[in-house]
Amino acid sequence: MRAILPELDAMKGVLQPEQFHPEGDVFVHTRLMLSLLPETVSVPLVFAVLFHDVAKPVTATVDKTGRIRFNEHDRIGAQMTEAIMRRLRFSGAEIEAAVEMVRQHMVFKDTPKMRVAKLKRFMARPTFNEELELHRVDCESSHRMLDNYEFLLRKREEFANEPIIPPPLLRGDDLIALGFKPGPEFGEILEAVETRQLEGRLRTRMKRLSGSNNDICRASRIKKTSTTRTPNENSDEQRGGAADATGGRAGRCHGRVAERAARSWA
After folding, report:
1. Contact at 8 Å (CB) between 97 and 110?
2. Domain total for the chain?
């Protein structure tokens, strides 16, 4: 193993906080996870489990309180996973899936705090179900707290009655018909509409225009014939980008234009 996968050998002896990992070091934890997987499992999931903590040896630090930390081990681990699997000549699809699972595995702890729209987008990704299994064995092989896992099982059942990402109420051609010039704002407005749709605040497309083009432009601070932005607008984007569609000053403005635009077509 040392010759083929030295990155796994490096996990031996890498201590973890006992509060969360009473089972032992990173290598022991990884072996336990593998043993908890079902008999039939995909190649990407096996390698995502194998490499989900592959970056812990290179990111391990001890903070001022004496706590062991592995900052950004998910992001760095995803990069390492891609390099290792390319070295081992796995297919592009297998690499892409495993890398995504490694990159996202720490997000699961935040899912109960997510807004509905963000949670639905997270769960709609093609690797989510296998990531959920990775999360289960990650918890069962360490602290054994399955609260987030059980929360997501309930949400998966709750969302199962309809498409988790429904057909959009607003498309780019609708914005063009309103007089908007294609540009970065398209994505921001469309995301704002989708957010309201996913959260149940927009459900149908109304048959009558609810405001003039100029009203919509003023509400969103977007010029119909230009994508030029003011310095303040650039600052908003630098601070949050498209994420502002769900919060912040730019998000509120785009939210108003989005809701108005979404209700404009039958």
Report:
1. no
2. 2
Q: Is the dihedral of CA 54, 55, 61, 67 positive or negative?
A: negative
Q: What is the pTM of this model?
A: 0.78
- Examine residue 86 and state whether it is found in any structural domain, yes or no: yes
Separation of alpha carbons 102 and 104, rounded Å: 6
CA distance 229 to 247: 19
Q: What is the mean pLDDT of the chain?
A: 83
DSSP assignment letter at 137:
H
Domain assignment of residue 38, given as a range:
6-161
Joined together, the tokens standing for residue 89 give 């000549």
Whether 35 and 86 map to the same domain: the answer is yes
Q: Which residues pair with 69 in a beta bridge?
A: 61
**Cβ atoms within 10 Å of 256's Cβ, excluding its own:** 17
CATH number assigned to the domain comprising residue 112: 1.10.3210
Is residue 11 domain-resident? yes
